[in-house]
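Batch job 17 of 40 flagged for manual review because the log was empty.
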Amino acid sequence: MEPVSISKNLISYLVFSNPMSSPWLLSAIYGLVRSMEKRIFWNSIHKEMDRFNGGWLIMGDFNGVLYREDRHGNREEIYSFVHMINAMDNLGLVELPSQGLKYSWANGRVVGHEIRAKLDQAVANSNWWNLFPNADMKILPQNSSDHSLVILNFEGCPLFIRRPFHFEAICARDRRSHWVVEHAWAKGFHAKPSTRLCRSLFRTHRGLSIWNKNQFGKVQLPIKAIKQALVDCQANSDDVDAWYRDKDLRCQLDELLKREELLWFQKAKIQWLLEGNRCSRFFFMTTMIHRKSNRIDYLKLDDGEWIYSRNQIGNLFTTRFESIFDTPLHPLPFDLIAIVDPIITGEENSELLRIPSWDEVRDVVFSMGAF
C-alpha cells in the first residue's frame, strides 16, 4: 500500500494486490454531518476521482444512509444525504452487498428511544468491480463500540487448512485439563523409564486432543456463538428482553475476548504484556506476520508469467523436484562411513546417551518462561 492523500475526513492509499499490474485506490472515509459540509466534501471527492482512472473503493463511516430503510428509530429526512447520493450517481459508485446485521450503528438507548442506522458503507466504481466481482461486506455485532466491525471480503470463504492440536496456555485455565493429564500419567506401568515417559506423553497428547475436541473446543467457537446471539438480539430491537440479553451477552463476549488475547499472546512468542487494555489485534498481527514469512503467495515463471493459485504453486514445486531427482540412483559403497572422520569421542558419546538427573530436568523446566 502506498499513501496518496491524507486529510481529516479522507485517507487514500494505492493498493497493489492480485493482479499486481492493476493497482486500485482505497479511500477510508469519515463523513461530515452537516448538509452544507457534505456537499463540499463530496464535490472534493468528485474532483479527486477525476484524476484517477483505475478501480476505486470508498469504505468507512459515511455518517449518512443511502436509503430510507437503512435507518430505524427516528424520522430523519432523506434530503440531508442528497449530496452524497447525487455524488455517487455522478461517479458511478455502486454499493457493495452486505451480510450479517442490517444496521452498523446504534445509539445504545433503551427500546423506544433507540436509533439504528447503516452508517458504515462500502461503494466502488466499475473498474474495481471488474477486479473483484464477488466482493461483499459483512456487518458484525457491536461489542464495546456504538459502531459494528465491518469486514471486506474479496473472494468469498478463505481456504481452510487443518492444523494439529497444540496445548495452549488458555487450556490450563480450565480445571478439566488437569484431570486429563493426571489420568494419562496414572495409567500403565513399564519397567523402562524412557518407555514409560514416551507412553505417558502419548496418552497425554491423545487425551487432551479428545478433550479439546469434545468438551473444551476452540476459543473462537463460543465467541462465534455469542456474536450470532448478539446478531439475533440486535436485529430484534423492539423487544425489551432482547435489549437486556444484549447487555449480558456483551459481558460474556468481553470475558471470552480476554481468553482469546492469552491465546494469541502465546502464539506471538512475545514476553511483554502488562495489565491494561487488551491488544489482541497486536498479537494476532504479529503471529500472522511470522506465519507470512513461511508462506508463498505467488511465483514468477521462467517466461515472466506470475502464478497465484495454491494448486499451481504446489504443482510447480512437485514438477521441479521431480525433474531434479529423476536421474537414476547410483549404488553407494558399503564402507562409506569409514570415509568420514569421527568428531565425537567415546566420552562425549556416553555423555549424550546419559539420562539427565532430576535436578537437571528441574533446572531446565524452571528456567522456561511462563508461556
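Reviewer: the log was empty due to a logging misconfiguration, but the result itself is present. Residues 138 and 171 are 31 Å apart (CA to CA). Unflagging and moving on to job 18.
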